[in-house]
User: Fold these one by one.
Assistant:
Number 1:
Amino acid sequence: MSLETEIKTDELLEKAAAAKAASVVLAQLSTDTKNRALEAIARAIRAHEAQILAANANDCAIAPPRIEIDRLRLTHERVAGMARDVEAVAKLADPVGEVFDATSRPNGLKVSKRRVPFGVVGVVYEARPNVTCDVAALCLKTGNAVVLRGGKEALESNRAIVAAIHQGLAGSDVPESAVQLIASTDRALVQRMLKLRQYLDVIVPRGGQGLIQATIENATVPVIETGAGVCHTYVDASADVEMATRIVHNAKVRRPTICNALDTVLVHRSIAATWLPAIAASWAHVPVEMRADPEAARLLASAGVACTPATAEDWGKEYLSLVAAVKVVGSLDEAIDHIRMFGSGHSEAIVTSDDKAASRFLNEVDAAAVFVNASTQFTDGAEFGLGAEVGISTQKLHARGPMGLRELTTYKWVIEGTGQTRP
Amino acid sequence: MSLETEIKTDELLEKAAAAKAASVVLAQLSTDTKNRALEAIARAIRAHEAQILAANANDCAIAPPRIEIDRLRLTHERVAGMARDVEAVAKLADPVGEVFDATSRPNGLKVSKRRVPFGVVGVVYEARPNVTCDVAALCLKTGNAVVLRGGKEALESNRAIVAAIHQGLAGSDVPESAVQLIASTDRALVQRMLKLRQYLDVIVPRGGQGLIQATIENATVPVIETGAGVCHTYVDASADVEMATRIVHNAKVRRPTICNALDTVLVHRSIAATWLPAIAASWAHVPVEMRADPEAARLLASAGVACTPATAEDWGKEYLSLVAAVKVVGSLDEAIDHIRMFGSGHSEAIVTSDDKAASRFLNEVDAAAVFVNASTQFTDGAEFGLGAEVGISTQKLHARGPMGLRELTTYKWVIEGTGQTRP
């Protein structure tokens, strides 16, 4: 091990150990105490705006070309937005302390579960400084300490933001050591962080597919993963043509760059000749490029609409842009089979007026969110009523789909006896 | 890749793909259909007793000395017990299909969560043939297909048991392919199985610490881990001496070889001179070897009781035998700190008549199960009212402590609209 790596290893161990120690205190804090600390952080973010923007300007000035500068750059509005988001988290209900599944056993033992923080959450993310403030607030609200490791291109911005957070915490009952920023930019350190089971209770990767894949492949700390969304909408034989057009248009066009945006539309043969020209007309104004299978292409051509022929790569592709694959299917079964083969388990929708088809679709499609007669763009913590969103999970363990504050907690079993021994 | 590895790789991929296909059918089956299949399996296990025992005799005859033959060997009673256990699983409530967290959003969307199977569960275990039948029943009940990979020393037993399971399923509506046994004994195959994310939704290791550690280190499929229990009981200053003696005796002696058995007892200084001779007298009949810190050793010597001096290795050690570490502490804080340092997050208890001490212990000790005035040996699915127990989780993600059938499921978000699009 080189001396440099050794020093950086020490930074990780020291900061993770300090976070663990802080987590013991954090777990016992009242909701009020945590909320006051969050409000103090919001004020400190505003008070440090000049320092944060200056640090960010330095980061932007030396950012390599591969970095999405728009996501790295902070402005007055963005810093104000960060502060407002922290205040919004303060206003949410605190899941910690909830008692559930309580029972009395025949031997008199009172058994229940109590919701508690994880302890220490590790967050690995890219050059997006707003994530620093966002996840720190979510973790503190749920009584978790946090070890942050952001993209090195945002290091100065992150330092300035965490300095503000620490200044906010300094006047509160939350220990400053509850929020730790790893300053080393050594990649070997991330590898070690992913395996730091003695200090980290869970790892949350926030970012693109490469980051998430690397986390899954290397972590021995349990991971809450988020991931790609290859989203289908199936327009059933019985669909209302106008409703189907509105929903599919929205699912693609509202925000094409997010994970719940439509990628492929499947349409039943019996309605395709009517509906395909309708959606093509709706999309023509945007415009959306349609990649059509041969049958859809023929029907579109008959209606005088040009499209691109779909290739094998179009099925199961997440476009994140104004492109949609289009395919004609002969039945609900064919639609479900196509989704099973090419979906990523994120968000899938059917447009139908047939209750039986709706019910089969909801039952048989295996995805985090299944929709009837609504746009897949609704897959979102706020839209589902969760308040803050920690992310959208595409795994099945612990949490699936939009994750709220509750998903940043675990539980302990509490057993109260009067001297019981087990026979 | 050698030809042999290639062939074995194919076995894994073929069987895992078949399990995935079966999981689609399984997820839609009614509780009645699954229960009838389980009852048919129980009958088939009884009908195949001779074949199962003959296969097991072959396994036992060639088992290497390192294998715990008592755990490998089947008898008439054990086979009958396996069949009874399958019937017991049939009688439990089915968690699949439960609807929860249902809300209506301001835009009219009806949003709820629906409990669904994981899909395919991979189980990696040691040379314990009863696990084969046990986990297959738990998985089928929860609508999951299962890929089993047991210790190679039990292969013939496992083949015979799975043959019986398949024969039971043959007359049912559950596809036989829902239960897959990997016959290859190549260790490289286990490594690949742990990374088979396209087919396996979760991996459950069942066995000793080495197996679990290897699973955690190598799996990219999400893991539900179970683990070691280093369990403490703290006898508070205010404890009832007789109750404390009964509870601590039971926690150590009832079954010393299981993970919830007491390893270390901590006793408050103010009660130690009275209580230590009492527990020593109670344990003397067993006998339990006491490994005492200097202060406890002095107090025991004054009462004429011999003990072994504790060494640094005794703190945090899981004995799984009739040995207990004993330590005098000066305060509740010292007890909690000791548990924080040396506990494994499994089961921890306090004996006290002081509500404030009880409350602090329950709040501040970070473990899957925290007890007041009861034996840690109660940490068990049946004792907590779960019916069947899938295992005892020592991780914080998804499930903590005893896991019931519900912990073998996940959920999907179901969103029912009337044409809503997102603004």
Note: Chain A touches chain B through 69 residues (CB under 8 Å).
Number 2:
Amino acid sequence: MPGTVNRQILLAARPVGAPRPSDFKLVEATLPEPGPAEVLVRNIYMSVDPYMRGRMNDRRSYAKPWEVGQPADGRAVGEVMKSNDPRFKPGAIVSSMLGWREYFVSTGEGLTPLDRSLPLVSYLGVLGVPGFTGWYGLKEIGQPTAGETLVVSGAAGASDTLVVQLGKLLGCRVVGTAGTDDKCKWLTNELGADAAVNYRRVPDLFEALRDACPKGVDIYFENVGGAMLDAVLRLVNPFARIPLCGMISQYNLETPEPGPRYMMNMVGNRVRMQGFIISDHFDRYPAFLAEVGSAVKAGRIKHEVTVVEGIDNAVKAFLGLFSGDNVGKMVVKLGPEPR
Amino acid sequence: MPGTVNRQILLAARPVGAPRPSDFKLVEATLPEPGPAEVLVRNIYMSVDPYMRGRMNDRRSYAKPWEVGQPADGRAVGEVMKSNDPRFKPGAIVSSMLGWREYFVSTGEGLTPLDRSLPLVSYLGVLGVPGFTGWYGLKEIGQPTAGETLVVSGAAGASDTLVVQLGKLLGCRVVGTAGTDDKCKWLTNELGADAAVNYRRVPDLFEALRDACPKGVDIYFENVGGAMLDAVLRLVNPFARIPLCGMISQYNLETPEPGPRYMMNMVGNRVRMQGFIISDHFDRYPAFLAEVGSAVKAGRIKHEVTVVEGIDNAVKAFLGLFSGDNVGKMVVKLGPEPR
């Protein structure tokens, strides 16, 4: 049952460089009551994602900036507690864009009912926007074929866990990069990657990748940017494809660092590099959900999450994304799953 | 009539960094005689192209390296002088890959008869590989639509002269960059570019391009790389396309310089950047020749050449490409056109 207090997290200040805990503020508000045709939702899980760093800036971008003094928002999964809208029965599970708070009232707009036969937390990860992003970028832009070599940077991240596994299902040699030996072991032992490179430990990133990719690189699923992109561009095969999903190494820089030196290789090797933003492609979400949802149900895809407990730890979870605290999708659990 | 001496140019040494005159050697050989089913061709024009810098290296690439001590080669237009092959009558004009020499004997393989109603020199420029390269890169990869802004770097070069004019015919705002005020004036006054930026003279390349592109950049036809690419990446519009035709600023560097800092913009703006090598696409040459050949005949496309006289000036012409000595296509005239 709802308590009487609704805790939520506001943006307190716009960061310069790396965000800090003081850029956020946890506040208590009165629990809202649903009006006519409205529903009250209790959040169970909320998502923290690297792209939210961009929303802390007051800069025009594909995602609307958060407002200072207003609650942050983002993807969440919750339970309908009270409903004055016949489309949503109490007890129904819905996804929304109203994370970073324990409860909210909604007109129903932007709420999507979820199939409870799949793990609820997976709707923020492997079956949610992160998984969809990985699936779209790999399949539509990467266009992998069996026998090709796929490199995934930041491979223990939310989208990438799926990219690694899809690459293996499609018959690729898959090489992941990550920042700890434990993550690397997990990539090879649990997710089936053929090789993993700990970019923090190897003496020379280029040489380590070259050894891991004896036949060069055909597809590079890019999440990291910087030195990683530089190293991969020295290894690209003719007609390689580089879906640009993100460049987390660059998000907290005030002044961008010099870029990859080996751009020239893109000409001689006819490389295609393409940025994408998944919200342009939501029309493909049902196709994704059908394909990957059934693979998850059948146990052919592992869905990995790092769950942090309680809204008072949400900021820590978000900041941890930039130091690689997560294995798989990072989520915050705001309350218990319904029985 | 043929003399008795055939002058040709050998690769004398593989350069480190910028090529020098001493990397080549002009030698005299006896005029060859055609054997059975062979033809003797007198070269009239030969092409010098930036891509030939790569052929001076002993490095696997899309174009075969030249051999030290052997004649250089490249695109040429010549006249059949003697023929033991019924397919080629004396007086016929043919293109070949046997430039850098005054005469050659051929079995006919690799010879293409040319339509004499078009200017012969245009077959090395606007109607040859350079023009075809510009047409393919702009239309197939750049996919311009009316009202978009097209930036062409090194716009006074061989391919680019055509790219600028095609961009105008397609209804784009066209901005060219070049390294002298004369070239810039020529781009705007003769070729119809809406603006031109002298990259050597402007205090800030980014600001100059921003002023020239008030609506941002939708297509960037890339010939230059380095600082130019960096500046354009700060100006790209959503869904911009960047055909990578070449990066002449990088060809003579032994160690590649740091690359563009604004790669991140490719993600948020969903930019597609794609290298291409025109020899992959020769199946499209007839379509190109039909379209651009008739535009040249009708006077809707200007074809610009810088003609250097004599094989003894061929090396100077080639080296001049890297200091921007050419306006339009740089060719070397090896002998008179037939009456």
Note: DSSP finds nine helices and 15 strands in chain A.
